[in-house]
């Protein structure tokens, strides 16, 4: 679809121009990299105040517990980096939890068909969001708000017809179970495995033509269109990924709790996590794994507040202050990066900090080209 | 299709939709043997417009300058609490309570506006953040209903002139002021200019911050008035009244339904009032038909999307003539953009 981003067709750019340490420091100074520093700082301060949290078992359980919001944040990232919003995420999570409760009631043979049904429903909601946004040109804020109203209304309407129970235990195992008897950490929760697999896929997809076109579309839709990107289809796929990630989050959350309260406010939590991860609202800037890291940073912050005995009612206020500070800081940094003439070669620096695909991919593909170089080639 | 729709202003379309909704509503209400135009029903519809109307007026200003306000529900709750606790049932406290409430609301709006304009934070995040801060404050300090409104203050909501409730008159008066501000004053014109294109506005010699700050302050003050009105209706201050109403998203929906561009720079108060009225008529009709209250949300969601899709189509057809230099100029006289009146 896009031949724009094939690195091998260009005169060779150096893969990187500075030493590993210098690039690491430069990466940590961008909003997308700073979130990893934030995660480390928070983790260290929690362990200092409460050493129990530092035990491998406790850490791994925390990582598993935070998986759903991290998955939702990664899904929301796709929509935000393409320059749109997905407010229907929380409603999708709730819908999926209710579907699981109603359809996989007590028959364990139903688990797989219900999972397939949930994924199909998720993909359909995303497809509708995407098509109405792109083809009917309704702002995504309004489209997904409408989807949210419609889904919540429908769920509450159905509430009078069929009560939402909990699905069979086999289904709930996905969210609450794990691989037992692992040395050191006792148990590896399934949600953690899911989030690692999805993060790997996400990081990979953002290096594919799809990911490149998505970021280009968010940065400048006109330029992306002129460059041969099918903007509507790229964005529609982003919405489908967002709804599907909300579906996966719902599948995991069923393991913890059932009912209709699950998932409410998830869209704002996911957007907050994405923004804390240094992704710019309006599109075109940011890195998918930073979105997941943003979710972990946020949850660590809440743990820290609990450890420090801050009343839970202040959580909202702290969250509010954090997102304002995070966005204000990242707005400043991105702006400085733009003014400083040629941007540093690491516009998306996080592969450095990313333990999953750093050693293999970093040498194979050079650092992603900046939007400016894209356009220059195709004008 | 093209020629006809380009000749209509978006406000005209909004009011055509309102007319259609009213006719359909009246017919449907008649089929269940009730009179849509009875004075009781009319005044019920009007009352339903007052709260959302006040908030939507403020939201219109904020959206016109290219921002958003998601903090309104918390401002509404906080206003009802501060008003209620300050009055504490004493008629003598009404004036100081109202002044204090509006001052607090203005301070929240000032915070919103400064974060948006000085720190360059997207309005979505800035107001979500400020809203969360306020929500944390409310949640920490007020668990249940608190305060009480004296009888004299409760009378504000009960009073009517003919079939028209006083609360609606307050809303309409404030709407008229906002309309005059947008159409007659310098700051109003600057709001359109900044919302249309902050960069062009800046290059034209405007200071781009004041319109944004003023819009946010006015929006929060109007939300504060809405909170006071709710206090007068319920006679106690409630910490959850705003978030229960879902006023943030509903007011944005009403503004967009009224033909204002979510991206800013185009639209106005009159359209917003039409949007609010469409919501009220729809709700009333569905109430008369005894539609399940939750299916109402489904209908609402679908209608919002459908209406905006219609406007979006229309804006596409008008826009190239103004913004794309490669296209020959369109026939003059098709809705002069207010942003361009500012020189």
Strand content of chain A: under 5%
Shape of chain A: globular
Largest interface: A-B, 48 and 43 residues
Corresponding CATH architecture of chain B: Orthogonal Bundle
Order of helical and strand elements of chain B: HHHHHHHEEHHHHHHHHH
Helix content of chain B: over 70%
What is the arithmetic mean of pLDDT of chain B?
84
Contiguous low-pLDDT stretches of chain A (5 residues minimum) are: 339-379
Give the tags:
heterodimer; A: 379 residues; mainly alpha; ABC transporter involved in vitamin B12 uptake, BtuC; two-stranded antiparallel sheet; 66% helix; globular; B: 343 residues; disordered C terminus
Q: What this model shows, in words?
A:
Chain A has helices at residues 20-28, 31-49, 56-65, 67-81, 89-103, 111-134, 140-159, 169-176, 190-207, 209-219, 221-226, 231-256, 266-276, 288-307, 315-339, 358-364, 371-378; strands at 178-182, 186-189. By secondary structure, chain A is mostly helical. Chain A has a single domain (7-378), classed as Orthogonal Bundle (ABC transporter involved in vitamin B12 uptake, BtuC). Chain A has a two-stranded antiparallel sheet with strand order 1-2. In chain A, a hairpin with a 3-residue loop joins strand 1 (178-182) and strand 2 (186-189). The radius of gyration of chain A is 21 Å and the shape is globular. Chain A starts with 19 loop residues before the first helix and ends with a helix. Mean pLDDT of chain A is 79; it is low at 339-379. Chain B has helices at 2-7, 10-31, 39-64, 72-87, 94-118, 123-141, 151-158, 166-184, 186-196, 198-203, 209-234, 241-245, 247-257, 269-288, 293-323, 338-341, and strands at residues 160-161, 164-165. Chain B is mainly alpha-helical and 343 residues long. Chain B has a single domain (2-341), classed as ABC transporter involved in vitamin B12 uptake, BtuC, CATH 1.10.3470. Chain B contains 16 helices and 2 strands. A two-stranded antiparallel ribbon of chain B has the order 1-2. Chains A and B meet through helix 7, helix 13 and helix 15 of A and helix 6, helix 13 and helix 15 of B.
């Amino acid at each position: 679809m896009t031949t724009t981003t094939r690195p091998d067709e260009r005169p060779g750019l150096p893969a990187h121009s500075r030493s590993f340490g210098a690039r690491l420091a430069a990466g940590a100074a961008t909003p997308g990299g700073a979130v990893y520093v934030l995660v480390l700082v928070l983790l260290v301060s929690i362990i200092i105040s409460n050493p129990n949290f530092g035990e491998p078992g406790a850490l791994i359980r925390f990582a598993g517990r935070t998986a759903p919001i991290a998955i939702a944040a990664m899904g929301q990232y796709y929509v935000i980096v393409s320059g749109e919003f997905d407010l229907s995420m929380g409603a999708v999570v709730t819908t999926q939890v209710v579907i699981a409760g109603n359809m996989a009631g007590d028959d364990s043979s139903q688990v797989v068909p219900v999972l397939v049904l949930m994924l199909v429903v998720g993909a359909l909601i995303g497809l509708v969001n995407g098509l109405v946004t792109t083809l009917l040109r309704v702002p995504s804020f309004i489209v997904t708000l409408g989807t949210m109203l419609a889904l919540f209304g429908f769920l509450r309407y159905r509430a009078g017809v069929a009560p939402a129970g909990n699905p069979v235990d086999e289904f709930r195992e996905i969210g609450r179970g794990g691989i037992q008897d692992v040395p050191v950490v006792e148990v590896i929760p399934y949600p953690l495995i899911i989030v690692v697999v999805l993060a790997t896929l996400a990081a990979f997809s953002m290096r594919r033509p799809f990911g490149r076109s998505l970021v280009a579309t968010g940065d400048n839709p006109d330029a992306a269109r002129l460059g041969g990107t099918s903007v509507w289809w790229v964005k529609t796929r982003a919405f489908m990924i967002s709804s599907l990630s909300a579906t996966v989050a719902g599948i995991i959350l069923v393991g913890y709790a059932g009912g209709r309260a699950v998932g409410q406010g998830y869209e704002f939590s996911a957007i907050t996590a994405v923004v804390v991860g240094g992704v710019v609202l309006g599109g075109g800037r940011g890195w998918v794994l930073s979105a997941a890291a943003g979710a972990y940073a946020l949850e660590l912050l809440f743990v820290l507040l609990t450890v420090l005995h801050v009343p839970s009612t202040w959580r909202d206020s702290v969250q509010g202050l954090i997102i304002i500070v995070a966005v204000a800081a990242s707005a400043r940094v991105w702006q400085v990066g733009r003014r400083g003439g040629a941007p540093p070669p690491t516009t998306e620096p996080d592969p450095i900090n990313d333990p999953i695909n750093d050693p293999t991919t970093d040498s194979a593909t050079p650092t992603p080209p900046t939007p400016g170089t894209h356009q220059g080639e195709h004008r | 299709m093209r020629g006809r729709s380009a000749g209509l202003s978006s406000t005209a379309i909004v009011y055509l939709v309102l007319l259609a909704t009213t006719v359909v509503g009246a017919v449907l209400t008649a089929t269940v043997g009730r009179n849509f135009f009875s004075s009781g029903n009319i005044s019920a519809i009007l009352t339903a417009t007052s709260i959302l109307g006040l908030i939507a007026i403020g939201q219109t200003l904020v959206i016109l300058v290219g921002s958003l306000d998601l903090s309104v529900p918390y401002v509404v709750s906080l206003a009802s609490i501060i008003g209620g606790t300050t009055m504490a049932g004493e008629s003598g406290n009404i004036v100081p309570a109202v002044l204090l409430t509006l001052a607090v609301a203005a301070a929240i709006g000032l915070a919103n506006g400064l974060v948006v304009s000085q720190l360059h934070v997207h309005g979505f995040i800035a107001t979500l953040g400020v809203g969360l801060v306020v929500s944390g404050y409310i949640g920490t300090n007020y668990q249940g209903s608190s305060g009480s409104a004296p009888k004299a203050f409760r009378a504000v909501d009960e009073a009517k002139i003919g079939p028209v409730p006083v609360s609606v008159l307050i809303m309409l008066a404030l709407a008229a002021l906002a309309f005059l501000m947008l159409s007659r004053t310098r700051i109003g014109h600057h709001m359109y200019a900044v919302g249309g294109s902050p960069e062009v506005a800046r290059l034209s010699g405007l200071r781009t911050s004041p319109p944004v700050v003023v819009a946010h302050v006015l929006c929060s003050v109007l939300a504060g008035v809405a909170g006071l009105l709710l206090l007068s209706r319920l006679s106690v201050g409630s910490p959850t009244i705003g978030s229960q109403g879902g006023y943030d998203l509903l007011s944005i929906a009403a503004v967009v339904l009224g033909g204002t561009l979510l991206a800013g720079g185009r639209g106005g108060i009159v359209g917003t009032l039409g949007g609010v009225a469409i919501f009220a008529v729809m709700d009333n009709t569905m109430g008369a038909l005894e539609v399940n209250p939750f299916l109402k949300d489904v209908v609402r969601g679908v209608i919002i999307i459908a209406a905006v899709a219609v406007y979006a189509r229309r804006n596409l057809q008008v826009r190239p003539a103004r913004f794309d230099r490669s296209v020959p100029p369109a026939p003059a006289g098709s809705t002069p953009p207010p942003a361009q009146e500012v020189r």
